[in-house]
Amino acid sequence: MESLIVELSKYVTVLLMAVYTYRNFRYFGADREKKAIILRRQRESIMMLHLLSFAVLFLNTGDEKLLSLWGAQAVFLWCAPALYGRCYPGRSGLLFDNMCLFLCVGFVILARLSPEKAAKQFAIVVCSAGAAWLIPSIIRRAWQLSRIPWVYGGAGLGLLTMVYVLGDKSYGAQLSLRVGQVSVQPSEFVKITFVFFIASMFYRSTGRRQIGLTSLGAALHVLILTISKDLGSALILFVTYVFMVFAATSEWKYLLVGVFGGWAASAAALKLFNHVRVRVMAWRNPWADIDNRGYQITQSLFAIGTGSWFGLGLCQGMPGKIPVVEKDFVLAAIAEEMGVLSVMCLLLVCLGCFVQFTAIACRMDALFYKLIALGLGCEYIVQVFLTAGGVTKFIPSTGVTLPLISYGGSSVLSTFIMFSIIQGLYILKGDDEEEEGYETEF
Predict the structure, then answer these.
(1) CB contact set of 124 (below 8 Å; sequence gap of 6+)
(2) pTM recorded for the entire structure
(3) Among 203, 181, 159, CA closest to 414
(4) What is the spatial distance between Cα 340 and Cα 202, in angstroms, rounded to a whole number?
């Protein structure tokens, strides 16, 4: 009986993911009444997916701790959207639902890999949600945010310098600061201050002198990350800056210079850093050294291939064989046990979030807000691309996490802040349009 439930759950999981993804894109063309129905059905799909997954986990493990974990998470996933809607009636319900889907999948796969880490991640999620709760109100009311560019730049450079001087090494890179028993990865938060720095600088002016000063500040961010060997974060900031300067100036030459500069920087990193060469060699031919440098990527490819379209079912695979699977290779674990189709649905929903970010950027009148939405959206989608590309051997692994799904407190909190900022911009624009008598939903 248990084997039958596990077998059927594979197909139901994929069906729920596919239905959610379809409704996610159907939402954009619906009227106001249908949008409310779509949002309600999406939340029902999330709750069904969460319940089904934990039922399968419990049947396979018999761990009663999973029941209390499921109960607490279910209350959060059901109540959080309703409470958020009461506090912010003009929020984007679709964006919040997408966050809940990512959290749901992350809860499930972490409970499968390590119930202890799943419980810790849930506690971090609750605290992060509480900490980010006031951000939309701040965005709506604090008009002075555009006046302090060097505060953002100084804070970001200061944090990155502290990591370089005092940070702990992890897999060849200096990534985190340890305060007692708590480890924090400042680069996750610098991604936000970086966007605010660039946006506030270009809000003042887009003349050549201002572009030069902004480029210098951006280059210092990337340089410190590079010498700290945090090349994944450096790449995210570099790509984000190139697109932000292009959006601010509409001049193609900056985009072309950025492409050439990125190519030159990649070639230099390959020559300067041994761990970059190791990752590139592992990417080019992981089978040549399958027991050493190619082990992680080959195990990831084995997991994806074994899972195929519908997955093996929860607790039926061997995702633990992939090193650091709960962080930058979490997509491989999802593909093995929940199916490649589920991964494709997740990535499409990530793309849907990026579409919302850019749509909000297009709607904003002030260049400052426009660039913030565009910059955060660019950082988000580049990070998703780097994670998915590394797991599938499309690009060399960069060691970045999948937002809201991978294990990691700094990543979760920074992503909550990022999405809350976007919600604040969405509400701010909705308030303006409401005063003018326009529709607030798109």
Answers:
(1) 409, 412, 413
(2) 0.93
(3) 159
(4) 41
pLDDT in tens, 273-299: 777 777 788 788 888 878 888 888 999
Dihedral sign from CA coordinates of 310, 8, 6, 75: positive
- H, E, C per residue of the chain: CHHHHHHHHHHHHHHHHHHHHHHHHHHHHCCHHHHHHHHHHHHHHHHHHHHHHHHHHHHHHCCCHHHHHHHHHHHHHHHHHHHHHHHCCCCCHHHHHHHHHHHHHHHHHHHHHCHHHHHHHHHHHHHHHHHHCCHHHHHHHCHHHHHCHHHHHHHHHHHHHHHHHHCEEECCEEEEEEECCEEECCHHHHHHHHHHHHHHHHHHCCCHHHHHHHHHHHHHHHHHHHHCCCHHHHHHHHHHHHHHHHHHHCCHHHHHHHHHHHHHHHHHHHHHCHHHHHHHHHHHCHHHHCCCCCHHHHHHHHHHHHHCCCCCCCCCCCHHHCCCCCCCCHHHHHHHHHCHHHHHHHHHHHHHHHHHHHHHHHHCCCHHHHHHHHHHHHHHHHHHHHHHHHHCCCCCCCCCCCCCCCCCHHHHHHHHHHHHHHHHHHHHHHHHHHHHCCCCCC
Q: Retrieve residue 413's tokens.
A: 């909190």
Chain centroid to CA 90: 23
Handedness of CA 406, 418, 26, 381 (dihedral sign): negative
Q: What per-residue confidence (pLDDT) applies to 274? A: 75
Pairing of strands 168-170, 173-179: antiparallel
Burial of 294 per CB tally in 10 Å (0-12, 13-18, 19+): buried
What is the Cα–Cα distance from 357 to 360, expressed in whole angstroms? 5
d(CA 317, CA 300): 12
The pair of structure tokens assigned to 296 is 């992680």
Write down the pLDDT at residue 268: 80
Measured torsion, CA atoms of residues 171, 407, 382, 208, in degrees rounded to the nearest 10: -80
- Is residue 338 within 8 A of residue 13, CB to CB? The reply is yes
pLDDT of 433 reads: 56
Q: Each residue of 64-76: pLDDT tens digit?
A: 889 999 999 999 9
C-alpha 175: how far from chain center: 17
